[in-house]
Amino acid sequence: MKKVYALFLLACFTQYARAQEPGRDFERFARVQDSLCTLAYEKRDDKKFDKHLNTFLARYNKLSKEDKKNYLSTLGGIYYNFCCLYSLQNNKVQALNCFEKAVQAGYYDYAHILEDTDLENIRKEERYKAQVKWLRSISDYRYILTKAEKYDLNDNRVFPKFTYQAADNPNLTALKKYFKLDSVAGGGSEVSQIINLLHWIHNLIPHDGNHENPAVKNAMSMIAVCKKEARGLNCRGLATVLNECYLSLGFKSRFLTCLPKDSLQVDPDCHVINMVYSTTLKKWLWIDPTNDAYVMNENGELLSIEEVRERIINNKPLILNPDANWNHKVSEVKEEYLYQYMAKNLYKFDCPVSSEYDTETGGTGKKIDYVELLPLDYFKQSPDKTEETSKTSGTLLTHYRTNNPKLFWQAP
Question: By CB count within 10 A, which of 53, 272, 322, 341 is most buried?
Answer without folding.
Answer: 272
